Amino acid sequence: MKVAVLGAGGLAKVICDALNLEGKHEIAGFFDDAKRGRFLKYPILGRCAQYGELCRKLKIRAIIVAFGYNFLDKRLSYCAKIGRDKKIKSINAIHPSAVISPGAEIGKGVYIGPGVIVNPGAKIGDNSVIWSGAIIEHDNLIGKNVFICPGARTAGYVSLGDNTFVGMGANITKARIGKNVTVGAGSLVLDNVKSDKYVFGVPAKIIRTKKSCSYV
I need a surface site. Which of 37, 47, 147, 173 has the fewest CB within 10 A? Predict the structure, then answer.
């Protein structure tokens, strides 16, 4: 099946790597608002807003969103549009070296990088991104559009709300994390965290309150 990638940056690179190694899809190209010509070895098919029209014209039936956390509002907007589009399928990109339990549940539009472990009972929400070497322990509940950076680890029964960002090397024990939370790199989270907070440190403490974003 031909697939298009929405966005042409760093996340798009690792998504393409995973797709090529999986060997299940043919990458047709990218949609991007800044780049023109080619990205990697694939064509830039058009601007992001043209994805629906051009996918139908080019008979592309699948897509994955590759906007990183720095473009969260744009990511949320396009994920919502694609979710309502009945003519195109949102696919996953899962690196072959990832270890995913048959007892785990993975949503749509998810990227899972090299060496990731997802254990039994874990649920990964739509459009989430789990970078290299992260560990998602048993019975975790990971919301939609959650970003988990390289080497981060969650203990059993952790929950992460929609649009949350977990920095590189952070560790989260049996805690409930709200929506739109940022956990700073290297932090150790021992307690529950309410929505719209930035926490950092060992143990993690609230540094500031963040601006709310649209929970899609």
Answer: 37
